[in-house]
Structures are given as structure tokens and as C-alpha cells.
UniProtKB/TrEMBL annotation:
Binding-site residues for ATP, renumbered to this chain: K60
Family annotation (InterPro entries): Kinase-like_dom_sf, Prot_kinase_dom, Protein_kinase_ATP_BS, Ser/Thr_kinase_AS
Record organism: Anaeramoeba flamelloides
Keyword ATP-binding: yes
Name of the protein in its database record: Serine/threonine-protein kinase
UniProt xrefs under Pfam families: Pkinase
Length: 317
């Protein structure tokens, strides 16, 4: 897919004005469903088809607006086409704003949906992790590293039992070649890989680490590495010592714990790959996948970690 096939640009003042009119004639804007540091997201209905979409509006005059980041996100979204990844529909580039029209995941956040259940099973959890892995497999084949996988970015296509998992938010994602090494410290503290904190460069393997943290939280309701003091938290992550307390993990299968341990290996060359994870016994259904995860644990899977800005703790790492 080429980015130009999504892009409605402007050339003249008259066309810029017409483009804004086109947007509001084509879509009926509804409630705000999200806010970012330099953008807002609205639910919108395409008038002709009655289909719902999420439209991210980015003001160019915002002091925090960074055009290269927006260009990067748009470029990445235009290259992705997978059932477990939020799809880009079109982009409107006006004089003052970007309008990015994307698939609307009306089912909301995955973890919120799980909290509504009395329990869920390891089989259900296994299917969730498998879908994340399949999405990552597509991303990495396209040369994209997400770099910010976390529960808040796991959405559901709708509210049905058969809703599809959707990975969202590619604002921190990066296009790389096989030889590229990244160095920018980014992500969400509790889900960030140790190599990001070590300033020695990192690659696509960071997404596998984050998947391991998500799996740990999914099955226990707790974070594998936690401390409100950021320096201590980062020290725990870089050490990579993971505990499985009997209270939370006594009924969880050994296959599940084994997979988490392989995700959360500090040494990057030894960390499990996507291919290996997709063939792991817990993913292919050979573990104790009928184990029920009780509601008292499931209710903790709501996001509860502080959202901490990299701006002030980059110096710590």
C-alpha cells in the first residue's frame, strides 16, 4: 500500500478550504473518545455508509506538535494490513490540522472487557497472546517495531464474544531495517525492555519483552516489575528477576509460566522469538489451558500503573 492512496492533501488556499468542507460533509463527528498531548480522537460516522470510525485530529499550531512524528505514524499505518492491527482509512492534511481516519474499535480496551467477566480461562488468555504475536509477526516483517505495547493499546473490534483483538497507537513505533539499532528511550515504564534502559541500542525484540509483561499482568493482575520509585523500578527491570507468588500463580499452568520466563529474558539473543513463541506448548494448547482465572484477579487487570513521562526520567536511566 502506498501512502498517497490514503492522503488528501492541499495545494491552494481554495482547495484547503474545500478540503475542510469535504471532511465535515463526509463525516458526522460524535463524542470525544481520547486525548493526547497534541491530539484529540473522536468517534465519527461516515454519512454515506453509516460506518463508525475513529478520527484523530492534530493541531499543527500546538507548541508540542512534532511533524516528523506524525509523518512517521502515518507512514507506518499506511504499510500495515492485518486483522489484529487498527487499519488506516484516509488522511486529510489541511492548513491547520491533520485528520487521521482509522478503524474504530467499538469494543474498547481488552482488559476492561475481561473485568466484566466472573472469570476467564488460560485458553482465552492463550488466544489473546497468540493474536498479539501474529500482529507482531506482521509488524516486524514490514520492518516496524511498535515500542509501546501495553494493555491500553489492546482494543476489541466490537463487544461480541467473537470480537477481534486490535493493536493500536503507533505514535512511538519505528521503521527499521535488519541492520538498524535504535537508541531512543521510549515506551511505558512498566512494559519497557531492559535493553532500552541500558543505552546500548535495541531492536525488535523489545516487543517480545512487552508481550511477556502483558501476559504476566493478564494471568495474575499484577506487574512482574513494580515500584513507584522509578530508579528502583528500572533496576528491577534490568535485573530481570521474575517471581511467581503462589497466591496469584498457584493454579496457573507450568507451561504459561515457562513462556513468560522465556519472554522476560534480559539477554536479547536468548529471548524467545515470535516463531518459537507461536510454537510454544501454551500457545498451541498443550498446557493446562482450562484453568480459570478468578474474578478477584481479573478485576485487577485494569490499567493501574502511573503514566510517567519520559521527559523527566530520561536522565535517571
Amino acid at each position: 500500500m502506498m501512502i498517497n492512496s490514503f492522503f488528501y492533501n492541499f495545494k491552494t488556499k481554495e482547495k484547503r478550504k474545500n478540503l475542510v468542507e469535504v471532511i465535515y460533509k463526509k463525516y458526522s463527528f460524535q463524542e470525544k473518545i481520547g486525548d493526547g498531548s497534541f491530539s484529540s480522537v473522536y468517534r465519527a460516522v461516515e454519512k454515506k455508509t453509516k460506518k463508525e470510525y475513529a478520527i484523530k485530529i492534530i493541531k499543527k499550531n500546538n507548541l508540542q506538535f512534532k511533524k516528523h512524528l506524525i509523518d512517521n505514524e502515518i507512514d507506518i499505518l499506511s504499510k500495515l494490513d492485518h486483522p489484529n492491527i487498527i487499519k488506516l482509512k484516509e488522511i486529510f492534511n489541511t492548513k491547520k490540522k491533520f485528520f487521521i481516519v482509522m478503524e474504530y474499535a467499538k469494543g474498547g480496551e481488552l482488559f476492561d472487557k475481561l473485568r466484566e467477566k466472573d472469570h476467564f480461562t488460560e485458553r482465552e488468555a492463550s488466544k489473546i497472546i497468540k493474536k498479539i504475536l501474529l500482529a507482531l509477526q506482521h509488524l516486524h516483517k514490514q520492518g516496524v517495531v511498535h515500542r509501546d505495547l501495553k494493555p491500553e493499546n489492546l482494543l476489541l473490534s466490537d463487544s461480541s464474544q467473537d470480537a477481534e483483538l486490535k493493536i493500536s497507537d503507533f505514535g512511538l513505533s519505528k521503521m527499521i531495517s535488519k541492520q538498524d539499532i535504535m537508541s531512543t528511550a521510549c515506551g511505558t515504564p512498566y512494559y519497557v525492555a531492559p535493553e532500552v534502559l541500558s543505552h546500548q541500542g535495541y531492536g525488535k525484540e523489545v516487543d517480545l519483552w512487552s508481550t511477556g509483561v502483558i501476559m504476566y499482568v493478564l494471568l495474575s493482575g499484577c506487574a512482574p516489575f513494580y515500584d513507584e520509585r522509578i530508579p528502583i523500578l528500572f533496576k528491577k527491570i534490568k535485573t530481570g528477576s521474575v517471581n511467581f507468588p503462589k497466591k496469584e500463580w498457584g493454579d496457573i499452568s507450568k507451561e504459561a509460566i515457562d513462556l513468560i520466563r522465556h519472554f522476560l529474558i534480559v539477554s536479547v539473543p536468548l529471548r524467545i522469538t515470535i516463531k518459537e513463541a507461536l510454537n510454544h506448548p501454551w500457545i498451541i494448547g498443550k498446557g493446562n489451558v482450562k484453568t480459570k482465572i478468578p474474578q478477584k484477579i481479573s478485576s485487577q487487570t485494569k490499567k493501574n500503573q502511573k503514566q510517567i513521562s519520559w521527559d523527566w526520567f530520561e536522565e535517571i536511566i
